[in-house]
């Protein structure tokens, strides 16, 4: 290989690496889950909190339109903060909200709802946390807006809902 | 006030740097470059300025001077004195100042110990080293200044991370930096030697000391990091292929290749270009490591928290240096008096080339594994993880032939050797290794296809390196290092295969059976210490021969609010018993992890042996 | 030299087609969880982590194993939920083609350069 070809190719590789690394600095180094749009497999069974029946999550997401799936627990403090927004979504926007009660005791969960109100159309329990993994969740609280027909996640909210995320949600629902 | 002294010293150092660089550049116009005594004094003054600066920073930490922002962020009045001092370099700004300190002191040492060498070569080395120093000074003074002021002066600092208060972790950075910065001298010297046309045996003799010094310090630095991870992090592992660890391993691999090449250059006057390329690459890797760790581009448990603008600076600086060295190499390539005789196939020269080939392969695996996610994310917007399985899959198959060549390589003669010269001893050792390995694999039921050859060759190398101690004209430093390396591979292999682990949720009073032992969770003691609350779990591990008492600890700090888990490790020359426990949400239950890890101590000892061989080589008066 | 190179490449292919050894189900849970990244803790594997996420994950893996799923199916399931980032061993697909290939190329390239620089036969 002639010296010049060697030199040019090395320079090109070095320049390429430089620009890639430069661009790489802008990217966040933690995974931001909003990037993934997954289709949820609703074909799993879970126990309903109040009726004690085993139901398919599929059956709770029917018809047209959108639903909200909210993962919560009575021991989770930020869940208290976001509860008002959920009540709002239910009463004002008539949104179908399915609750997943994560690693909780049923008594405490029912107490929580009695105290703060129940925005959920249905609640299923997830005592070991494995149903939440079926949804690709990280922890509590987490909220998913899904399309009832395609079963795709329209938007995922990690952490408690607040003013700005609430506004995003209401815009998407319309 | 003291703050300003530190700051101004650095500015003076910067001015000196600019002056020296300009002076040398100007004198390049004349055909010969002569060193005036002035430059020597300037370099000395520069080192003194940086020393003063560093000392003032230590002073600020020791006196808890919270008017200094770095001290405020990284220290606390209740920190023990030892950790106040080590806190100086346990943060981004302070550690950069440490880099600078070693850069200038090493340059000073170089100036003194190279007194009798060619002036042109020395001056050029100063020139390149000053460019590096200049870059660091700019970076420190304008983006990472450890002497920035806070007003009003806070009463108390915020830096009390308990994980950082550990002796191994305190000396790990300085030792590591001695290794990294040593490679800067090698870099500057190599560039200087190309330009002055002096890549030859005497350059190799001279730079050999620096290569050995960097190599020894880097080895020990890496060892300290692993020891810390093992004792402190509670997972019983010592290497995770975490980006920051990889970043220290890469220059080490390159430096090992360089070491062998320099020995060969000195002895046989061959591999000139390759020695230069390796010298440039090693330092580039050290600098890239600095970039990767400090810029926030990689996700790791031990990156400094940093903003990307600092990353841009280091990136540009790094690539300027790389471009500069590429240009100089290609431009001055003709001056390298390459030895045109080709080495024979069976010769020690070829064995060294083979060593370098494998080192470069291992290096490329680690490098690509570390930076590939960045490239993939930028080009394709996909995020993947590259963890231990990747490294193991690529490295282990190539390690097997490497061990073989390492066993036979050192015994091959220089220039030319006979292919039929297979030693009876070597063959019998090989057969013994096969037999031993076969029984071993059979007994312990290790069923992987790859582990049998790996065992055979590790044991083979081990016995060969022992046998090599006996013989005439033994190069003792080489034998010690090679033996150390074989011991390292064997210990890691045995440790990996024979380690046993137990994990269970237990309450006080519970007893569990594991293999031939009974693990009893006897009690929990709560003790209030100076800055944390301590929960000590008392466990007893009993088997038919003896009874072992282990007391792992949970420390609950409230400033900042963290819980750390301190394992209790009982080490003997045969094995370590490792116990750690964690609190669970279900009241009264603790997750208990007990591990039996054979030969851990030998892993540490072997690295010490490897470095020791390097040290002895330094002490030798002749080749 | 050439023999050495082909030997090494063959070894690598062996790896990709290696059968996984049979193990008890809890060992299998351990093995799989060691290969998964705990997504809410920096730098820990699911095996090492005590976080809620990790504990739930371990229970889920056990459930999938009891359902008869093998390692690959479990990994694929988790990748479909969380992305390839969760698995420590990068799969061999069009994204990671260069990842696995480049070091091999380095070795082969280096080997070829050495090949050209040494005298093969004794004169």
Question: If you had to describe this structure to a student in words, what would you say it looks like?
Answer:
The complex is a heterotrimer of chains A (174), B (623) and C (123). Chain A is α/β, with parallel strands linked by helices and 174 residues long. Chain A has a single domain (40-173), classed as 3-Layer(aba) Sandwich (Glutaredoxin). Chain A has 6 helices and 7 strands; from the N terminus they run αββαβαβαβαββα. Chain B is built from 17 helices and 10 strands. In chain B, strands 2, 3, 4, 5, 6 and 7 form a 6-stranded antiparallel beta sheet that branches. The model of chain B has no long low-confidence stretch (mean pLDDT 88). Chain C has 123 residues and is an all-alpha fold. Residues 16-22 of chain C have low confidence and may be disordered. Chains in contact: A-B, A-C, B-C. At the B-C interface, helix 12 and helix 13 of B face helix 1 and helix 5 of C.
Gist of the model:
The complex is a heterotrimer of chains A (174), B (623) and C (123). Chain A has 6 helices and 7 strands, in the order H-E-E-H-E-H-E-H-E-H-E-E-H.
